[in-house]
Amino acid sequence: MNIRKNSRLFHALNDPETFALTFELVPGRGGQTREINRILALAREIAADGRFHAVSITENAGGHPALSPEVLGKEIQAMGPDVIIHFSCKDKNRNQMESLLFSWDRQELHNLLVIAGDYPKVGFRGHPKPVFDLDTIQALDLLTAMNRADDDRTAAEGGSQAGRSASFLKGVAVSPFKLLEAELVMQYYKLHRKVAAGADFVITQLGFDGRKFHELLLYMRQNQLNIPVLGNVFIPTLPVVELMYQGKLPGCVIPEALYEQFQWEARTADRGRKARLLRAARLLAVLKGLGYAGAHIGGPGLSFADLDFVLQQAEDFSSHWQECLAELTFWPRDAFYYYEKDAETGLNRPEPATRPRPVSAGLAYFLASRVHDLAFEPMGQLYEPAKKICLAMEAGRLHGLLDRFEYLVKVVLFSCQNCGDCTLADLAFLCPQSGCAKYLLNGPCGGSRDGWCEVYPGKKRCLYVQVYERLKAIGRDQGMAVGFVPPRNWGLNNTSSWVNYFSGLDHTAAENEAE
Predict the structure, then answer these.
(1) Could you tell me if 365 and 477 are in contact, meaning their C-beta atoms sit under 8 angstroms apart?
(2) Is the Cβ–Cβ distance between 187 and 446 less than 8 Å?
C-alpha cells in the first residue's frame, strides 16, 4: 500500500496550485509538563483550522534530551493533520535507526525530516557520547532501501527480510544563510547528494533576507534539483534573538543590522512582538511570490492567534510582495552571495558571482595525493608492488609491524584514528574521524559559523571548509556535488586500512560495485 496516496502533505508539496504550510513544534524535557499540554492544545487548534498541511516535531532540539517525537506524533496525527517527525543521526546507530523506522512505518508515521542533528549537550551525569553512525546521506540511502523493500540488502548483511516496502516521505534541510563562500557552496553541493540519495522535499534554515531565499531557489532551478522547497519563517522571542546573535544556536545567524532592529523594536509597549509577527507575514508573502512550494513556520511560545494574524497579514501583503523585499534585506554586506545582485529587483541575476581560486592546495595535499596516485590507484606505478607487499606482510608474521607502521605514519600526518576504512582520498586528504566532530563523510552539517566547527567555535575550523579550499585550488571542488561514501564499517576498526583496501574489504569495494 502506498501511504503517500493519503498524505495531505505529499499532495500539497506536489500541487503547483497549493502553497503548503507546516508548523514546527518543539517538545521539551518531560512527558507530563504544562508545555507539552500547551503544544497539544495548539496542535488541536491548528488541526481544527485546516490551513496547515502538517506539523513537524523536533527530536532533541539543541542537543538536549526531550520527549521522543513519535509520542506526540501519534497523538497529533489522531487529531487529523499530517505529522513530520524529525529523524536525526546524533543519538542512534544504524541498527537503532532501522528498528525505529520499522515501528514508525507500522504506526504510519511516514513523513520525516532527515537531519544530522545538533551536537549532544550535557545530560545525565555528564556529557553523552555523540553517535553519528550514519550521516544524512547515508540515512537517506537506508530510507530509500526500505521504501523499495530491498530484501537483497538485508539478506546479504545477515538481516531478516523487511517485508513490504515502506512509504517514507523524506525531507532534508539546507542553509543558504552562510557567511563564507566555502560554507555556502558546500551546503549546495551536499544538497545535490541529498537529492541523489532520495530526498523528496527541502526545508531551509531560518533567515531574514529575501535575496538569500531567492538565491537557493535560483540555484536549485539552474541545477535541476527538482524537488519542492519550503522556506523557513521563524518568529523568535528576544531571548532567542540574543542567543542567535551570540552564535549559541548552531547554524542560526542574526546579522548586526537585524539585531539592532530587534533592539529598537523592543522599546515599544509590546516589546516588539507585533513587529516580529509582521516581519514573518512579509516573509511568507515573499516566499509565495518567489515561487516556493510552501513555508515552514516556527518559533517559541506562539499562540494560534499569532499564527492566524501572520497568515491573514501575509494574504494582505501577497498582492504587492515585491514591496516587502525592502524590509527583508538583513545579510552582512561582506558576506558571500552565490549570484550577482540584480539592482532593479534587489534579488539575483542568474550569473554566478566571481569566485577567485586559491593559489595552492598546499604542500601536504600535493604530497599525499602524489603518493596515493602512485601506490593506491590501480594505474599507479607502485600499485602492484604495494599491494603484494601489504598482503604478504598481512599473511605472514609481520602483520603487526605493518599495522603499527601504517598507524604511525598516518597519525603523524593526518591525526589518524585507526578506523581501518580510510576516506582520506575522498576528502582532500583530511580525516573526518579526527577532523569532524560529527564524523560526517558526505558533506558538512549546517552548524558551522564563520568557517568554525559548531562544536569548537574559534578553535577548530570546519573540516569541509578546508576540503573545499583544497579542492577549489585544483579545480575539483564540484566533485563534492556527486558521489556517495558508504558508512564506516566498524568491523574493520583498529585494522590496517591498506590491507583492507587491497583485499577489497573497505568502502571502496562498495563504491566500485555501484559503478
Answers:
(1) no
(2) yes
| Distance from C-alpha of 443 to C-alpha of 485, rounded to nearest angstrom | 10
The span from the CA of 55 to the CA of 20, in Å, is 11
Q: What is the pTM of this model?
A: 0.94
Residues 98 and 177 in one domain: yes
Same domain for 295 and 411? Answer: no
Phi, psi for 352 (deg, rounded to 5): -60, 150
Tell me the pLDDT tens digit for each residue of 146-159. Answer: 998 764 554 445 45
Asked if residue 57 lies in contact with residue 12, where contact means CB atoms within 8 angstroms, the answer is: no
In eight-state DSSP terms, residue 452 is B
In a domain, 280, yes or no: no
How buried is residue 129: exposed, middle or buried, by Cβ count under 10 Å (0-12/13-18/19+)? exposed
> pLDDT tens digit string along 230-285?
999 999 999 999 999 999 999 999 999 999 999 999 999 999 999 999 999 999 99
Say if residue 377 is in the same domain as residue 472. Answer: yes
Q: Who's near 417: CB < 8 A, 6+ residues apart?
A: 431, 433, 434
Q: Cα 196 from chain centroid?
A: 14
Q: Are residues 294 and 381 in the same domain?
A: no
For residues 10 and 103, membership in a common domain is answered with yes
Task: Tell me how far apart the alpha carbons of residues 24 and 83 are, in angstroms, rounded to a whole number.
Answer: 10
